[in-house]
């Protein structure tokens, strides 16, 4: 790790905390962040030439594994034509058609450059469409770092202990109502009081930014009902779950139709992309069709569109890929649970499709923010460091989901489980 240590030291001179996104700093697990130089299939290679089985996948987009030839070649094919024009290109329509085909709740879609932009724009659209200011989100859910959404947020904000970020004006944060994920009674109660002022509910249909917490049966259905009753817009933030838990995302997996959907990660094949889309009636309020302004110089960038389209085509054309991802995730989580049991470590897991969670807890199931934040984060940190030494790269925070890729083999999973056995044996 000596080169990573040197690089981290050098990075801190001109980059705040030495990283360009806070979770990368390893504050939740201690030690020095690993500096990577290459990814290939299931593996990452660091600057010291160590190899790791990767269960982060760039936080989700590398669903086919790193440097997948279809994606790399798609980028190569358009590279020589120029990197962007700030004007329409044909591939944007192909992408829009593909997204609408895969997710039928989306009748129109607008491309942006990150998940943050997607959720920020969807919220503005919901406000503009309904003429209401208040929004509802859930504690521990993360929807990027726009002001309205950095209230009781998950991911790095939770890892660093700042779920309510300084810098967000109180006069803006007061419009964000934060409720309890998986508690539909809490939602009904809040709507009984102020429902007619609520522009939208935004939710991660599978919460992946406070570890990985699947929705309880009836929770998402309840949100749909409440939004219908009060005329609020239901936004599924599928930046993580889209094209991952099923080709059609969590909305296909749970068979619930949101009004708007936000996308990111997979849709760019690893390049910076986001998107938001949904009902035509709502999307027609976006400029230039309607008055709600939203724009982006780099939106629909040809490289990102080509990479994303290659990814979506590969996912669509590889039969059974999501079933295989789910089966491999199950193999991993069950194997880890067995090893933990063998070594008397209180531990449980969650899994939805190609997403999973690891919890150091006596509880057998973790389905709330309170339960997730009651888990033993010190043990998680020790486990993380042990696994890193064993050549397994997990998300460097107890408040992040893990991601399976199609490139990870049964043999890689077996190696991971054996490594975990050795690490569990060392945990106090
Ligand atoms: C569910 C969810 N929404 C939104 C975002 C924001 O995406 P980005 O980091 O691309 O801005 C993320 C990840 O960061 C996410 O996991
Ligand atoms: N949880 C985030 C993405 O889903 C982690 C990525 C980041 O903030 O750098």
Walkthrough of the structure:
It contains 15 helices and 14 strands. 50% of the residues are buried. Helix 9 (249-253) links the parallel strand 8 and strand 9. The mean pLDDT is 97. Helix 7 runs parallel beside helix 8 and helix 12 (321-342) packs parallel to helix 15 (410-426). The protein has a seven-stranded mixed beta sheet, with helices on both faces. Strands 1-2-3-13 form a four-stranded mixed beta sheet. It has a three-stranded antiparallel beta sheet with strand order 11-12-14, with helices on one face. The longest helix has 22 residues, at 321-342. The protein has 428 residues and is of the alpha/beta class. The protein folds into two domains: 2-67 and 319-426, Aspartate Aminotransferase, domain 1, CATH 3.90.1150.10; 71-317, Type I PLP-dependent aspartate aminotransferase-like (Major domain) (Aspartate Aminotransferase, domain 2, 3-Layer(aba) Sandwich). Helices cover 39% and strands 14% of the residues. It binds pyridoxal-5'-phosphate (PLP) and the ligand N[C@H](C=O)CCC(=O)O. The site of the ligand N[C@H](C=O)CCC(=O)O has 9 residues, from loops. It is an enzyme of class 5 (isomerase). Its cofactor is pyridoxal 5'-phosphate. This is Glutamate-1-semialdehyde 2,1-aminomutase. Pfam families: Aminotran_3 (PF00202). InterPro entries: 4pyrrol_synth_GluAld_NH2Trfase, Aminotrans_3, Aminotrans_3_PPA_site, PyrdxlP-dep_Trfase, PyrdxlP-dep_Trfase_major, PyrdxlP-dep_Trfase_small.
């Amino acid at each position: 790790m000596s080169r990573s240590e040197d690089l981290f030291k050098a990075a801190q001179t001109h980059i705040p905390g030495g990283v360009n996104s806070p979770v990368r700093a390893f504050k939740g697990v201690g030690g020095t962040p690993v500096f990577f130089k290459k990814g290939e299939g299931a593996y990452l290679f660091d600057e010291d030439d160590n190899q790791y089985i990767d269960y982060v996948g760039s936080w989700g987009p590398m669903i086919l594994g790193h440097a997948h030839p279809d994606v790399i070649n798609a980028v190569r094919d358009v590279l020589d034509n120029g990197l962007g024009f700030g004007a329409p290109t044909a591939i944007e329509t192909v992408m829009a058609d593909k997204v609408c085909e895969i997710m039928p709740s989306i009748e129109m879609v607008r491309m942006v450059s990150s998940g943050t932009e997607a959720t920020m724009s969807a919220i503005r659209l919901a406000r503009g469409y309904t003429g209401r200011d208040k929004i509802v989100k859930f504690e521990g859910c993360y929807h990027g770092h726009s002001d309205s959404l950095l209230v009781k947020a998950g991911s790095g904000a939770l890892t660093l202990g700042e779920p309510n970020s300084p810098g967000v004006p109180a006069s803006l944060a007061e419009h964000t109502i934060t409720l309890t994920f998986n508690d539909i009674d809490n939602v009904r109660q809040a709507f009984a009081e102020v429902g007619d002022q609520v522009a939208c509910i935004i939710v991660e249909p599978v919460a992946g930014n406070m570890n990985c917490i699947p929705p309880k049966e009836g929770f998402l259905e309840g949100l749909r009902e409440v939004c219908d009753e009060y005329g609020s817009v239901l936004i599924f933030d599928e930046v993580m779950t889209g094209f991952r838990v099923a080709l059609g995302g969590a909305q296909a997996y749970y068979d619930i139709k949101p009004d708007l959907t936000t996308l990111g990660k997979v849709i760019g094949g690893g390049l910076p992309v986001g998107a938001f889309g949904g009902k035509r009636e709502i999307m027609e309020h976006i400029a230039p069709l309607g008055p709600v302004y939203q724009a982006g110089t780099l939106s629909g960038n040809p490289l990102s569109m080509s990479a994303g389209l290659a990814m979506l085509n590969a996912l669509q054309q590889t039969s059974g890929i999501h079933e295989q991802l789910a089966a491999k995730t199950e193999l991993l989580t069950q194997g880890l649970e067995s090893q933990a049991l063998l070594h008397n470590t209180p531990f449980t897991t969650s899994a939805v499709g190609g997403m999973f969670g690891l919890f150091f807890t006596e509880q057998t199931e973790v389905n709330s923010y309170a339960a997730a934040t009651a888990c033993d984060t010190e043990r998680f940190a020790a486990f993380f460091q042990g696994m890193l030494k064993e050549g397994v790269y997990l998300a460097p925070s107890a408040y992040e989901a893990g991601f399976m890729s199609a490139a990870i083999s049964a043999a890689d999973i077996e190696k991971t489980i054996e490594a975990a056995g050795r690490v569990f044996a060392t945990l106090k």
